[in-house]
Design a protein that fits this description.
Layout (H helix, E strand, L loop, with lengths): L1 H6 L13 E6 L4 H11 L2 H20 L6 E6 L2 E6 L4 H10 L1 H17 L8 E6 L4 E2 L2 H14 L2
Antiparallel strand pairs: 1-4, 2-3, 4-5
Helix pairs in contact: 2-3, 4-5
Pfam families: XH (PF03469)
Protein name: Factor of DNA methylation 1-5/IDN2 domain-containing protein
Organism: Lolium multiflorum
Length: 153
């Protein structure tokens, strides 16, 4: 996959025509969620700065290896890790900033937990099928790179 990502480095997130393949950072917080919350809580002039601060704070929390807000649960007969509903940090986030910010953080945590073997919680790039909301397969990636190379000629 690394080679495939290198081949598209000149086109991060770029799509052409009806293409829907691009690079997505797995585990990266969605700033839009924090912007929406901060527009409701802060004066207009402060909202953007506060949303960036809040998003950065929570991205750092996610990357903290000492914080493990997961519990082992049986889901469909298989043991897996799920977000602990009683995690103090997450509860405080939800109470202070609402469901949208909470969902952004728990989504990023879950993605990183599911997609990394090493236990590292640092966002990483992945070729993504945005139309279908999933990791792009090799065939889609190759087709996308060919399309991009034809457009750049």
């Amino acid at each position: 996959m690394f080679v495939q990502l290198q081949a598209t480095q000149g086109f991060p997130g770029q799509t052409i025509g009806r293409a829907h393949i691009g690079i997505r950072m797995i585990g990266e917080l969605d700033l839009k969620a924090f912007s929406n919350v901060c527009r409701q809580k802060f004066p207009k002039d402060d909202a953007e700065v506060e949303s960036v601060k809040l998003c950065s704070k929570w991205q750092n929390e996610i990357s903290n290896p000492n914080w493990h807000p997961f519990a082992v649960a049986t889901v469909n007969g298989k043991e897996s890790e799920v977000i602990r509903e009683d995690d103090k940090k997450l509860q405080e986030l939800k109470e202070e900033y609402g469901e949208e910010a909470y969902a952004a953080v728990t989504t990023a945590l879950t993605e990183l937990n599911e997609h990394t073997i090493s236990g590292s919680r640092v966002p990483f790039p992945e070729m993504w099928n945005h139309k279908e909301g999933r990791k792009a397969n090799r065939k889609e990636i190759v087709q996308h790179v060919i399309q991009l190379s034809m457009v750049s000629k």
